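User: Predict structure, ligand magnesium ion.
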Amino acid sequence: MVSSIEKAIDRLNKERSRDQSGGTEQIAAADEALVESDNVDAESKSITGEKTEDGKGVVAVNQDVSTANPIDSDAIVAAHELPEKEICEIDFETLGKAGYLVPNSDQQRLSEEYRIIKRPLLMNAFGKGAAPVERGNLVLVTSSFPGEGKTYTAINLGVSIATELDSTILLVDGDVLKSSLSKLLGMEDKPGLIDVLEDPTMDLGDVIQSTQVPKLKILPAGRRHQNSTELLASESMEKILTELAERYPDRIVLFDAPPMLATTEAGVLTYRMGQIVMVVEAGKTPVDAVNESIAQLDPNKVIGLVLNKSRVKSGHKYYGSYYG
Ligand SMILES: Nc1ncnc2c1ncn2[C@@H]1O[C@H](COP(=O)(O)OP(=O)(O)OP(=O)(O)O)[C@@H](O)[C@H]1O
Ligand SMILES: [Mg+2]
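Assistant: Predicted complex:
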């Protein structure tokens, strides 16, 4: 694993020096990574007595019938049926115009690139890779600095995975300070991760949003909190992650995170994930910064590099996603 990362860094170095000597604009490519794999416990536990994802569930009505008023049978039916959970419509038209990958579009290149990126992630997550990866279905997208394309990568990967036949995706806005993912998806006012962390009586199912794409669910950031780092590092977060990792064994939980070198939140989160996707902005992210970010990661994690905004043509050995 380390050697493939080193190879990628080495390649970035070479590309960079080539660019500088030739006076051309940056063209860099990080290759390989995410080659090691994992095994999600095939007999993952399921949680019983929980609400179903569509918001329906069984409500226990604790009323003493002997003293109660005459029973209204319509009210009983109403009390036993929670309202259908609303579907949050994502504005894919606007996202598509802004260059994001959207469902049912003809963005063949972009879609092929994300197919290449997601393949090893899925294999690791579902135990089809070379070696088991603990919590392989928990994947974090981060980068060294702001603006390198973490949220862009997370949304595109999310959409790409949602088109898989046998897996579902939960996109989590783990950048709780900026909450760009929630904003882009029109969910900035919804309760989310921070609310559940703050109030342990809240059920995760209550804040996970369904979308018009049945396999794509969203966990928004929720409301802002001044102690967000502490909340992300808390025991409650550990419980939430365990629940997320085990509740649906066929689900990838993909976190959009803040940058590694500009915040403490990302570092806290990486330790609890199975796979890390490190976004590198072609021609911009200094190689030293990539090295520094990777040095902060647990070497036992599966780490993949995604080269964003590259102008080189992508092939099976490259991750890249922009043709300017
Ligand atoms: N490959 C790309 N092609 C086109 N636009 C891109 C690409 N990658 C990122 N962008 C655009 O660049 C801007 C920054 O990207 P994004 O918000 O994903 O970065 P980020 O790393 O999440 O930033 P932050 O650290 O602030 O959260 C956005 O406007 C996004 O739409
Ligand atoms: Mg972002």
